[in-house]
Amino acid sequence: MSTDVAAPVAEGTARHNPVNWLAASVLLSTPILALILVPLYAWFNDYSTAAWVSFVVLSALNGISITGGYHRLWAHRAYEAHWSLRLFFMLFGTMATQNSILVWASSHRTHHRHVDDIDHDPYSVKRGFWFSHIGWMLRHYESGKEDFRNAPDLLNDPIVMFQHKHYLPLVLLMNFGVPVAIGLMVGDLWGVVLLGGLFRLVWSHHTTFFINSLAHMWGSRPYTDENTARDNPVLALFTYGEGYHNYHHIFQYDYRNGIRWYQFDPTKWLIASMSWIGVTRNLKRCPEFAIEKAKLTMQFKQAEAKLSLQAAGHAQLEAWRAKLAQEYEHFTQVLNDWSKLKETWYAEKKEQLLHKWEEASFRTRFQEIEYRLKMQRKRLRLLTAQVAA
Ligand SMILES: [Zn+2]
Ligand SMILES: [Zn+2]
Known about the structure:
Blueprint: H1 21-44, H2 49-75, E1 80-81, H3 83-95, H4 101-113, H5 129-138, H6 152-155, H7 158-165, H8 167-186, H9 189-212, H10 233-238, H11 245-250, H12 266-276, E2 280-281, H13 288-309, H14 317-350, H15 356-388
Antiparallel strand pairs: 1-2
Helix pairs in contact: 1-9, 2-3, 2-4, 2-9, 3-8, 8-9, 13-14, 13-15, 14-15
Bound molecules: zinc ion (2 copies).
Residues 71, 75-76, 108, 112, 248, 252 line the site of one zinc ion.
């Protein structure tokens, strides 16, 4: 596990920050109860298949409502959704019990804005694994102070505000009412209450919390090393696609986190498939060129770091350096070509001089430049592999 997490430094000592009794009692008692009651019940009674199904289905509904709703829709506005889907996300997001959408999304926007800053990021990993995972919710910290000035859109959203106003009764209804109703329906009340209720709550809590802790510690940084966020395909499996956190922190308005087809991102699949039937729309994607550019910048950094590790008298050193310098020049040239093309395109668009066939020709020219970056990434990978040998 590679990490550049520094020793925890908090604003004041924890003792000066008052305990958040409501959050602390829920977050500490539920895992303890689950650890005792779930196996104990299994010892005396077998769980029915229906109880296991309730665990899997309710976990998935909670998880996807947090990732698709709380996170990508409300915190980042990465797409728009029909009210029916928003209502669904609100109800099952409430069940996940991670505070109201308003509080969650507003503090998440602060996290992106001040990522890693120990005084302003509400769950900065620079204050240690425990703090970023759960500690930040157990006490009232200055860095976690509610400030909705960054969420005027949410303050005007009726579904968000309804949930914020009636949060506690909604949490109780979703966490007790729904499991009890399912339990009675399938004839395994305690099985469903324990697996679909209690165990599901603890599971969905900690898998989401891993995004703030592990996804800032464990994994690779293909797009940027300016913050601690990592890409981690293993975490993506448990978090409905949110493990591609390095990509997410640099391109936060993209509705996708795993951008390649083979990357596990069911939240993206849900949002995209819902757009086919008109339930979601205006799905935002970051331009391919910006993504390629970010990746190449990181590759140059890695190649330079590797070169600097080579022994001074290495026979190939000068040749590698020259090759890298040449590639860098080429990279700058491609970026210049891109800006020029973009300028011409904007100018012509403004003058309304563009015909359909001209638009198409511009598109081809943009694609050509993107292709040059892709090719360069391949060359650079080969060069870096040689240096490592
Ligand atoms: Zn993050
Ligand atoms: Zn985010």
